[in-house]
Amino acid sequence: MDTPAQHDRHGRGRTSRRRPLRLLLAAAAAAFTLTAGLATPLNPAAEQAKAADDGKKVLTVAVAQSVDSLSPFLAQRLLSTSIHRLMYEYLTNYDPKDNHTIPGFATKWEPSEDKLTWTYTIRSDSKWSDGKQATAADAAFTFNKMMTDEGAATANGSFVANFKKVTAPSPTKLVIELKKPQATMAALDVPIVPEHIWKDVDDYSKFNNDKTFPVVGNGPFILTDYKVDQYVRLKANKDFWRGAPKFDELVFKTYKDQDAAVAALRKGEVSFVAGAPALTPAQAASLKGEKDIKVNEGPGRRFFALATNPGARTKDGEKFGDGNKALLDQRVRQALFLSVDRKTIIDKVFQGHAVEGEGYIPPRFSTYFWKPSDSQKLAYDPEKAAKLLDEAGYELKGDQRVGKDGKPLNFRILCHATDPNDKAVGKYLKEWWGDLGIGLEVQCLDDVSVPWYAGDYDLAFDGWSVNPDPDFVLGIHTCAALPTKAKESAATDNFICDKTYDELYEKQLAEYDPAKRADIVKQMQSWLYDSGYMNVIAYPNAVEAYRTDQIKSIQTMPTAAGNIYGQDGYWSWWSAVPAGGTSEASAGGDSGAGGSTGAVIGIVVAVVVLAAGGILIAMRRRTTADDRE
Question: Where is the signal peptide (predicted)?
Fold first, then answer.
């Protein structure tokens, strides 16, 4: 749901994310009550006029999804985690030029000789937006809360699962003691929160951080307002240690229709459209060559895949759900793998705006990128697929495959109703699998999380945003990521649990040698590939567009052929310089310099609303429209 993939940056697969359905329903009811009393939806023209009168520079951003939670302890969706990168500092950050680790809240970090104790020097020039000093004690509080409170461990718990003790001997010194070596210690993507604010939270599993504004933070922007499925409003933090953003306000606005957002871009009503999660080939083509519009395209950090339900179960082995038992046979899974023509999907669906899928990690991350050998590759081969089905006992009788029990071989696949790629690929699968005698029902839903959590599916379109450190997207396939109780939200992606894979996961987590760790990660991808559980079809490009008469410059990540929306950091919106006289060289400095007085820049990233009627349900981030960071 970047995500994953986003997003995929995080070693969070080792601790369950428990969001029981009763809590989801309660959240929905609360959100419905809240929405019933909301003011009229944000009017861009009126808001911009008001901002102009106030002399503010406003950057309006909308994204391809709804907010699941504004609590950094609960949020999983790409939109929400992206907002948290703007609100709170992390110990470390990623350089926008090439993704290498750079200082964040910590200015330096050093392990002990045995790699079991890590000491971080915390910067002394970071303040919370209420004026209080941000210190190592805040970081220690954040990690200790995650270590001791199950609710606080919902989103990022796997980062601290191996922590033995966390202390703050001084305001600028943080010490983390480990149970065993952990390779992700320079990539702990956990938002650090202010202890003096969060210590009073009663229930971390329910607190969404969306009732009292402004929300105290120490990032480049401060959260000032939020309306469910309408907008999230932030203002520039003038005291941000790296320098203030050039815009006074940042607004993430919800668009119900992507075509409408593209039309607004043409009219100059908005300045940035990213799509859901990318512009369609037709939209991108129609915008190329338009005056004052630039289409930005680069290799993406996501994968687009088919996930197979291997049999939903809890950590203690309790089985639930109604997944087709035929998929427990590796031969059947591989037969489905062999009957997917990736080249056709790249050419016809993505129309060249994607790379053919192979391993689990996108080629953008070359260190960890893996692809199968010629002998291992499960390339499009319907004849071989048919033979595997025969071997598995599913004979072709007429035009239908039938099992030994006499029942036809039929599958269901979960599809995101808001994602045109899911629907288009679903049509091809129905045709290809139909030729093999397999029936397929493409179930396109606005909310796929309910059947997914319940294990009531056979296959599903899946995808995560992947980060420079791939630990998170690897961890979501471990046994530890399974739910504690049936049908509860958890860290697991699709209920995979295998001893061999788990051993490889623990091995890579403890390996500090980059080359050796990369080799282990590739072994894990090889296992996933052979298993047939994760069929990576494509690596979609990031395709977005913006108005050059409204945006003078904006940082891509990586700098060469990178994306603007959904970065591993706050670089794009923090660096954005409005057109009309603002000096690019002063980007990130005093926002009083440059810029036309009263200029209002509306920058909108098109959003597809995933929940109707203003009802907010904390749903799991799933594939394209729901990518994690």
Answer: 1-38
Which domains occur in the chain, in start order? Answer: 89-200 (3.90.76.10), 304-540 (3.10.105.10)
pLDDT digits (tens, 9 = 90+) for 251-293: 887 777 788 788 888 888 878 888 767 888 999 999 998 999 9
| CB neighbour list of residue 376: distance below 8 Å, 6 or more residues apart | 526, 529, 530
Residue 50 pLDDT grade (very low, low, confident, very high; cuts 50, 70, 90): low
Task: Give the containing element (helix H, strand E) for 540.
Answer: strand 534-540
Strand 221-227 to strand 173-178: parallel, antiparallel, or no bridges (unpaired)?
Answer: unpaired
**What sign has the CA pseudo-torsion 95, 100, 104, 108?**
negative
SS3 content of the chain, % helix, strand, coil (to 5): 30, 20, 50
Mode of pairing for the β-strands spanning 173-178 and 231-236: unpaired
Burial of 193-217, coded b for 16+ CB within 10 Å and e otherwise, reads bbbebbeebeebbbbbbbeeeebbb
Backbone angles phi, psi at 619, to 5 degrees: -105, 160
* Alpha carbons within 13 A on the beta-carbon side of 338: 22
**Integer CA distances (angstroms), 359 to 9, 30, 118, 348, 384, in order:** 17, 42, 33, 21, 21
This prediction's pTM: 0.81
Q: For residue 267, what are its two tokens?
A: 């009219």
Output 29 or 577, whichever has higher pLDDT: 577
Strands (E), 106-171: 106-111, 117-122, 163-170
**Residues in CB range of 354: below 8 A, 6 or more apart:** 300, 304, 346, 538, 539, 540, 541
Model confidence over 544-556: pLDDT tens digits?
999 898 889 999 9
Q: What is the pLDDT of residues 514-567, one digit of tens each?
A: 999 999 999 999 999 999 999 999 999 999 999 898 889 999 999 999 999 889
According to DSSP, the residues that pair with 298 across neighbouring strands are 542
Evaluate if residue 464 carries a pLDDT over 70: yes
**What is the per-residue pLDDT for 596?**
30
Q: What is the dihedral sign for C-alpha 605, 611, 616, 621?
A: negative
Helix H or strand E segment including 250: strand 249-253
